[in-house]
């Protein structure tokens, strides 16, 4: 696995599923979760978080995922961190918008745990 430090920005319940699925594939690594995109952005800007990869939900309170993605890609130090959108949406226009903003990939969250595991096997 080329990514050592992974950040997930998502709802608390989804973070738990994410951690179970990714640990099933890669075991113990340095995984960090945040439930608020605005706080995560602030911590990234202050270098309190230094992930190699970010998984980002789009439906977040205060600052949504599109806003977060836009802000991180404006920052010279942070813009090279790959951001993978992991959301319930499958709207093609949203996929195009996030890719245009610099998202590395766009993945629609599955409802089945085994499908979640398959996603991590294929992405990472």
Layout of secondary structure:
Elements: E1 5-9, H1 12-26, E2 30-34, H2 37-45, E3 53-56, H3 65-74, E4 83-87, H4 92-101, E5 105-108, H5 113-123
Helix pairs in contact: 1-5
Q: What is the count of structural domains?
A: 1
> How many helices does DSSP assign?
5
Structural class: alpha/beta
Q: What letter string, H or E per element, gives the SSE order?
A: EHEHEHEHEH
Order of strands, main sheet, comes to 2-1-3-4-5
CATH architectural type: 3-Layer(aba) Sandwich
Count of distinct strands: 5
Protein name: CheY chemotaxis protein or a CheY-like REC (Receiver) domain
Organism: Flavobacterium noncentrifugens
Keywords: Phosphoprotein
InterPro entries: CheY-like_superfamily (IPR011006), Sig_transdc_resp-reg_receiver (IPR001789), TCS_response_regulator (IPR052893)
């Amino acid at each position: 696995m080329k990514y050592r430090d992974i950040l997930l920005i998502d709802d608390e319940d989804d973070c738990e599923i994410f951690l179970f699925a990714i640990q099933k594939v890669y075991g113990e690594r340095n995984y960090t979760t945040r439930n608020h995109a605005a706080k995560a952005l602030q911590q990234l800007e202050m270098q309190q978080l230094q992930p190699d990869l970010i998984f980002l939900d789009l439906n977040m309170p205060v600052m949504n995922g599109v806003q977060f993605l836009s802000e991180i890609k404006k920052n010279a130090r942070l813009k090279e961190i790959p951001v993978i959108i992991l959301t319930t949406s499958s709207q093609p226009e949203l996929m195009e918008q996030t890719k245009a903003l610099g998202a590395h990939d766009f993945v629609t969250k599955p409802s089945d745990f085994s499908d979640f595991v398959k996603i991590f096997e294929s992405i990472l």
